[in-house]
Amino acid sequence: MVDLARRLGLAALFAVLALLTVGTPAHADPATVTKDDVTMELRKDGVLHVVEKITLSGAPMRRTLLTRTRYDDGNDRVYRVSNLKGASFDGEAITFTGSGTVEYDVTGAVTPLTGGEELRWFAVAGPAEQVTVTVSGPGRAENLSCFAGEPASAIGCTGASIDETGAAATFEQQGLRDGEVLTIVVGYPKGATGAAPILERRFELANAFTLNAVTGGALALLLLLLGGGVGLLYWTRGRDARVVGAQSGVVVAHQNGQFTPPDGVRPGQIGTLIDEQADVIDVTATIVDLAVRGYLRIDEQPRQAYDAPDWLLVRLPSAPVASLLPYERALYDAVFDGRDTVLLSQLQGSFTAGLGKVRDELYQDVVTQGWFARRPDSVRTRWTTVGVVATVLGVVATVALAWFTTYALVGLALIIAGAALAVGGQYMPAKTAKGAAVLAHTLGFREHLASGEIGSIPPAQRIELFSRYLPYAVVFDGVDRWARVVASIDGGGRPADNLYWYQGPAEWDLSKFADSMRTFTMTTSGAISAARLFRSF
To answer: Which residue numbers delimit the Predicted membrane protein YciQ-like C-terminal domain (predicted)?
Structure first.
């Protein structure tokens, strides 16, 4: 019985030991170089040929080569490894699969000095127990040194010596740990190889925008160009200011009860003349002007308390359509499009498509009138395109110059110049002398409209005359004032229920005209703005 218990106890002990043996993984020792004999030959072309006989203990080992170091504030020094045999190299590290011999070439390890040349290479990286390095070159070794430890370490290696002839230098190091490097330095006579370091610019944002003669000159040139641009703007647009200043003054647009706008300017032309832009309000004013001049009639539709207001535009069959200016005819055709009547709320489809032609005809009209030498929109587009292209090129140039050189300020100057052109291009259209004179008279007419003076106009002529004023008041943002002027007058001593060009619903009279006209212009401008073809205020 005791013998049986003893046997069972031994069996349990063996089982526990077996479980412990199986359950505890074995840890392989890290790979270590037990012995490393390195022979280096510096050739006449400056290439360092390395032959390394390595004895490994443990698993295959990966050794990272130090192929890039800081050279100065703007550059890195690069050591190029090539022609490697006996191991694998991925561009950063050599992988040793076992003991053996490895060969490779290093370019860029020679530095020219004032009185000679210096060979510097990071011969062996740890861990390594025993290292010996022998170096020969194209001339007599004049001096040598070596360092062991971190790559920037100044601690000397175990030993360094030169043979009696100076043809070979020998370095020794023991106990090189993981992360440590043996760096060897050998001095040779001047011109021994004629080689030079390989430098690659290191990207640093501060260095990329260095201010020097080139970049400073480019910035100065930019300021000169911008100053010239300001001068050009003054020369082109300053002429407008000089003529307007010389011919300014209040202009009345009627004589002997007849409406005579200054220089025959029509409402739709005014906005393009003043700011070189075809605006939504120019088209709205033209619709009102066509009604006032007898080409169409505006009928306000009856509505309930919560209905949206609407108007019926009615084509007048006896209107002399052939006498319309091209932009007016384009608008007239876009509104009716073969119809005799159309609700303002239904101005979509063909109307929106036709507005593109209206805009083009407006710009062409100011050239035909002789107010501009070229279409304002074409001038703006040309300058804006040049500015955008210059800005894009400036961005590309800045990135490239910042990455490869220290001249990024030159590209930045191009960006600024391009942006200035793109913005300044909006102000480049210039009026002719005739256009500037017409502008002066038009602004004088605006002063007269702003005063709202009726003057000594016979009552029988007031409705027609001041109706003719109203489209201009729409352009000059004075529709409320002039609508009230129109609403306050009568045609023969008694209040009028309607106008010859504007009809209201039942129980509507001129006392409501100001509100109706304000709502009509806002609604019409909204319908035109939906096309996104004209500038809105």
So the answer is: 260-484
Q: Contact at 8 Å (CB) between 56 and 32? A: yes
Beta carbons of 165 and 38 less than 8 angstroms apart: no
Q: How far apart are the first and last CA of the chain?
A: 112
Reported for 382-386, long-range contacts at CB under 8 A and 24+ positions apart, including other chains, are 382/425, 383/421, 383/422, 383/424, 383/425, 383/426, 383/428, 384/421, 384/422, 384/425, 384/426, 386/418, 386/421, 386/425
How far apart CA 243 and CA 237 sit, in angstroms, is 10
At 444 the pLDDT is: 86
Residues facing 133 on adjacent strands? 38, 171
Q: How far apart are CA 285 and CA 293, in angstroms?
A: 12
Give residue-wise pLDDT tens across range 393-432. Answer: 989 988 888 887 778 888 888 888 888 888 888 888 888 8
| Peptide bond just before 127 cis, omega within 30 deg | yes
Q: What is the DSSP letter of 264?
A: G
pLDDT at position 402 is 82
| 220-271 per-position pLDDT tens digit | 887 787 777 767 766 766 566 555 555 555 666 556 556 678 888 999 999 8
Residue 121 pLDDT level (bands cut at 50, 70, 90): very high
CA pair distance 82, 178, nearest whole angstrom: 24
DSSP annotation of 508: -
Give the confidence band of 17 by pLDDT, cuts at 50, 70, 90: very low
Q: Are 299 and 311 in contact (CB under 8 A)?
A: yes
On whether the CB atoms of residues 284 and 474 are closer than 8 A, the answer is yes
The alpha helices in 247-368, defined as continuous H runs, are 267-275, 280-292, 326-336, 350-368
| Cβ proximity of 86 and 142 under 8 Å | no
Buried b (16+ CB within 10 A) or exposed e, 231-263: eeeeeebebbeebbeebeeebebbeeeebebbb
Give yes or no for a contact between 183 and 150, defined as CB atoms under 8 angstroms apart: no
Q: What is residue 73's DSSP assignment? A: S
Distance CA 121, CA 137 (A): 14
Closest among 189, 115, 209, 168 to 403, alpha carbons compared: 209
Run of H or E residues at 132:
strand 128-136
Report how far apart, in Å, the C-alpha atoms of 34 and of each of 159, 177, 184 are: 18, 12, 20
Tell me the C-alpha distance between 49 and 42, whole Å.
Answer: 6
Q: What angle do CA 423, 427, 430 make, to 5 degrees?
A: 155
Residue 443 tokens read as 């602004």
pTM (predicted TM-score): 0.62
Rounded CA-CA distance 533/537 in Å is 13
CA 264 to each of CA 76, 254, 270, 442: distance values in angstroms, whole numbers, following the listed order = 74, 12, 11, 10
Say which residue the tokens 């990286």 belong to.
Answer: 125
